[in-house]
Amino acid sequence: MNKDVLIRLSGISKSFDGETVLDNMDLEIHDKEFITLLGPSGCGKTTTLRIIGGFEVPDAGDVFFDGQRINDLPPYKRQVNTVFQRYALFPHLNVYDNVAFGLRLSHLPKEEVEKRVKEMLEMTGLRGFDARKPSTLSGGQQQRVAIARALVNQPRVLLLDEPLGALDLKLRKDMQNELKRIQHATGITFIYVTHDQEEALSMSDTVVVMSRGKIQQIGTPTDIYNEPVNAFVADFIGESNILDGIMVADHKAKFAGKTFACVDEGFDKNEPVDIVIRPEDVDVVPVKKNGLSGKVSSVTFKGDYYEIIVDINGFKWMIETSDYVAPETTIGLSIEPDAIHVMKKSEYSGMFGDYSTFSEEMDHLSDLDTDEDAEETAE
Ligand SMILES: Nc1ncnc2c1ncn2[C@@H]1O[C@H](COP(=O)(O)OP(=O)(O)OP(=O)(O)O)[C@@H](O)[C@H]1O
Ligand SMILES: [Mg+2]
Fold first, then answer.
1. Cα distance between residue 3 and residue 35, in whole Å
2. Among the three residues 169, 204, 223, which one is the final residue of a domain in this structure?
3. Which end of the chain has the smaller Cβ count within 10 Å, N or C?
4. How far apart are CA 213 and CA 54, in angstroms?
5. Do 170 and 248 share a domain, yes or no?
6. Residue 272 half-sphere exposure, CB side, CA atoms within 13 Å?
């Protein structure tokens, strides 16, 4: 990936009606990068995109494009195009004319318009659809038209705000692959917005995790998953057991009533910390005296593994294992030092609890609602 900074947000703040929506945000976006803003509803993702697109003016801070400050540049002069979740196509125009619309406005020669539109229809898998009206297309096909229409103007940057939100799961997966392919083929920088963590991890070069108008973490999908900076990121990305712990000394963490060898260092002696253990990093072993053990409260078959909930000293852990264990039995558990991830305490410490009320549907809903919940708790 080319590491040249293309867009830089510096100290961006924005309030609506006295409510801070973006709080002193700094972000660098590199040329040809696929970068994703990820976070719960209301955290400021769309507002950030709108500021980059020029549809919203920040109260403080600067936006730079290729080193030039562009705060005062109107949207149509920015080398940026947007695909919205509601991709309003012109209903009375056919596919070809929808895609050609912007080029005709800029008075390009007819042959050039034709060449570019054909190329884009090809690229987005819409060859042969030229004469179809939007109302005769499936959701996925309409979305492709919206993408073709945005790309045909050859922007340096494409802003995509939950562009797949309206599609069903299967189509969504197909379109994720399509978008990656199109991004590679065109070399255009994609700034993508989603609240779906799986989508963010699978598509992006870089993920920006946001909560309450602040960036929590910027990193590759692997970094974000393996090294979350705080309990918010650990909870939002994937499944995690988040426990209160004490860093007894370098390479020695105490949690769940036991002391474990770990790889982390540099904390104060006996510093209170948050510990993250991913469900796939706990091994089921025979029960040992003085070892970690717990009682299985539920077992769910997931195809290639079992998801079990285990009660360890009253705290319910989620564990993924390929060995069947029976509900209500007591099992031994073992955790390798490098599977223990230690985090500083933060404003999000203690917010997420254990897996006692877990169900997949609930988990999905709570991902969407995390911010509102947090505000209620704070009151
Ligand atoms: N024009 C506006 N006037 C008043 N409040 C606004 C305006 N635009 C956004 N907000 C508020 O700013 C906050 C952040 O909104 P934003 O649309 O950026 O969130 P988001 O992260 O995109 O959420 P979602 O995932 O639901 O789309 C919300 O509380 C929203 O109500
Ligand atoms: Mg939004």
1. 13
2. 223
3. C
4. 18
5. no
6. 6
What confidence category does residue 207 fall into, taking pLDDT thresholds of 50, 70 and 90? very high
| Same-domain status, 279 and 156 | no
The preferred substitution site among 20, 22, 38, 47 for testing ligand 1, maximizing ligand atoms within 8 Å of CB, is 47
Place of tokens 């988040």: 242
**356: domain range?**
227-378
Write the pLDDT tens digit of every residue in 230-252.
999 999 999 999 999 999 999 99
* Mutation test residue for ligand 1: of 13, 46, 159, the one with most atoms within 8 Å of CB: 46
Please check whether residues 240 and 198 belong to one and the same domain: no
245 and 212 fall within a common domain: no
Dump pLDDT digits (tens) for 316-333: 999 999 989 999 999 999
- Contacts of 297-304 with C-beta under 8 Å, sequence gap 24+, read 297/327, 297/328, 298/327, 299/324, 299/325, 299/326, 299/327
Q: How many domains, the chain?
A: 2
Determine the length of the chain.
Answer: 379
Among 223, 253, 282, residue at a domain's last position:
223
Check which CATH number belongs to the domain holding 32 and give it: 3.40.50.300
pLDDT digits (tens, 9 = 90+) for 145-196: 999 999 898 899 999 999 888 778 888 888 899 899 999 999 999 999 998 9
